[in-house]
């Protein structure tokens, strides 16, 4: 059985710079990928099927058409595979979990079925975050997420992720956003510039789930944390650290203090 990781996407900042005529918001962000993530397993079969297991499988129990299955059908309608998705990431958490799963399906099934396909084009049809998750590498995102600039040498800091158990659907958070749009600007080049950025959806997320504010306060208070910020539309937040050793120490401390949070 083939195995394909689906790492969590973390928006190191997220600036809302405009809105299209169709209502979709224009964003600028640097996206990095965490060690934590879902895992997709697959093997050949006569028909296409998907089993979801893992700590957050229950959150997808009522989902009629998982993005993994949509990706499989987009790649090769009619071909079969037995897929098992290990759902380790919380759902509706600002980590691009569903998009990462779809991207993993495209990568895994193209290998399993021996297909040469334009995976980037297929990813773009599946959702705004699927293309960046297909590459699963640090990049600058612009537009509605479709304009990607790879940043192979960009110094992404070690991250500690925390989610209080709140689900925040992306449309609801954008709907709650208030205020003007930012001016477009180049991506930050240094850690100091990154610390000076923000997530423009934070206030909207806190208005819907006040515990997001509690998470941000707890992360910012950790020893060695450079700054704390929300990822995507929440509710997952992160703290950035100068090195992995400091991040690992802080993670153990936070797990002891907040045993009911998802922490990675």
Order of helices and strands: EEEHEHHHEEEHHHHEEHE
Beta percentage is 25-35%
Task: Give the count of helical stretches.
Answer: 9
Sequence stretches where pLDDT stays below 50 over 5 or more residues: none
- How does the overall form come out from the CA principal axes? globular
Oligomerization state: single chain
* Helicity level: 25-40%
Q: Termini separation (Å)?
A: 27 Å
Work out the number of β strands.
10
The CATH class of the largest domain, by name, is Alpha Beta
How do you describe this structure in short?
The chain is built from nine helices and ten strands. With 264 residues, the protein is an alpha+beta fold. It is globular and about 55 Å long.
Describe this structure in words.
The chain is an alpha+beta fold and about 260 residues long. It has two domains: about 1-150, Ribosomal Protein S5, domain 2, CATH 3.30.230; about 160-264, 2-Layer Sandwich (Alpha-Beta Plaits), CATH 3.30.70. About 30% of the residues lie in helices and about 30% in strands. It is built from nine helices and ten strands. The protein has helices at about 65-75, 95-110, 120-125, 130-135, 170-175, 190-195, 200-210, 210-220, 245-255; strands at about 1-20, 25-45, 50-55, 80-85, 140-145, 145-150, 160-165, 225-230, 235-240, 260-264. The strands form two sheets. Strands 1, 2, 3, 4, 5 and 6 form a six-stranded mixed sheet that branches. Strands 8-9-7-10 form a four-stranded antiparallel sheet, with helices on one face. Helix 1 runs antiparallel to helix 3 (about 120-125), helix 2 runs antiparallel to helix 3 and helix 5 packs across helix 7. The longest helix is centred in the middle third of the chain and has 16 residues, at about 95-110. The chain is globular and about 55 Å long. The mean pLDDT is about 95.
